[in-house]
Design a protein that fits this description.
The chain has 302 residues and is of the alpha/beta class. The chain is built from 11 helices and 13 strands. The strands form 3 sheets. It has a 6-stranded mixed sheet, sandwiched between helices. Strands 11-12-10-13 form a 4-stranded antiparallel sheet. β11 and β12 form a beta hairpin. α3 crosses α4, α4 packs across α5 and α8 crosses α11.
Length: 302
């Protein structure tokens, strides 16, 4: 039976390391049964956010709750499974022994055979973990996260070490798990993964939430379409005044107009006789991501 209510709740959560606020006042709610992607550049605060969620860190301010309780309580109750970036293979144990041991620590675990099958490593059950390839170890970690049949599955950069085929198999398994009514939160810097596999995308930038919505909503928030034309002697400043235009970029004699109303923009260009080399296309998630986030400042030269 699918749970209802809030699975994850951040209220003004802050975590700082010296003068750097890795998490800077995050407010976030994830309902039971949702699949949510945390998307951000390296160093944006994704892993620290996950650490707060799992109770690995205490917030300096604000609060974090899982299923209405402190993270530590939900983790101890076996309601959370996690696959983190920082992990080392356990020496001298087989895959089946490791997953079985982890499963035994939960009150209502998933059958080991099922966890191995979902992770696509049933054939590796008798192999030693410390003799597997990097991609195989990554899938073992996924099986370990599944072992307790948790209500909330937390995945930190889950496909980082996987090849294309293994990546597709992983997402098939994750979707199968989510369809059973489980809540899934995963962090990634692969935009196409977030767009394809999440109900919602939460963009984190410098420890804050820069956007929260579906891929289509994020595209619209960043400017729904791109209109590209030859400059033909026209200035970017003049093009920026056209109806619907939010921003203008110029590259090699071409202008890229990010616009909320591409029809109005194209009509205005036609009235100016400025439609040479005209192209109209929807903004990609890459375009939206770049518009919603900002690159880290260059380090000061001392």
């Amino acid at each position: 039976m699918t749970q209802r209510g809030s699975a994850v709740s951040f209220t003004g959560a802050v975590k700082a390391y010296g003068a750097v606020r890795a998490v800077d006042g995050i407010d976030l709610d994830i309902e039971c049964g949702e699949t949510v992607a945390l998307l951000g550049r390296n160093g944006a605060g994704k892993s620290t956010t996950i650490g707060l969620l799992l109770g690995l860190y205490e917030p300096d301010a604000g609060a974090v709750e899982l299923f209405g309780s402190a993270p530590e309580r939900s983790v101890r109750a076996g309601r959370v499974g996690a696959m983190l970036q920082e992990a080392r293979p356990v020496p001298r144990v087989t895959v089946g022994e490791l997953v079985g041991f982890v499963a035994s620590r939960y009150p209502a675990p998933m059958p080991v055979s099922r966890a191995l099958e979902l992770a696509g490593i049933a054939e590796l059950a008798g192999r030693r973990v410390d003799r597997l390839s990097g991609g195989q170890v990554q899938r073992v970690r996924f099986a370990v996260a599944l072992a307790g049949d948790p209500a909330l599955l937390v995945l930190d950069e889950p496909t980082a070490a996987l090849d294309v085929e293994a990546r597709h198999a992983f997402w098939d398994a994750m979707r199968a798990y989510a369809r059973r009514g489980h809540t899934v939160l995963f962090s990634t810097h692969y935009l196409e993964e977030a767009d394809a596999h999440a109900d919602r995308i939460v963009v984190i930038d410098r420890g804050r939430i820069a956007a929260d919505g579906t891929g289509e909503e994020l595209r619209r928030a960043a400017g729904g379409n791109l209109v590209t034309v030859d400059l033909a002697g026209r200035t970017p400043e003049a093009l920026a005044l056209l109806p619907g235009v939010r921003s203008v970029e110029t590259r090699g004699g071409r202008a890229r107009l990010r616009t909320d109303d591409s029809d109005a923009t194209v009509i205005a260009l036609a009235e100016l006789g400025a439609i040479r080399g005209l192209e109209v296309a929807p903004a990609s998630l890459d375009d939206a991501f770049l518009a919603l986030t900002s690159p880290a400042p260059a380090p000061e030269v001392l």
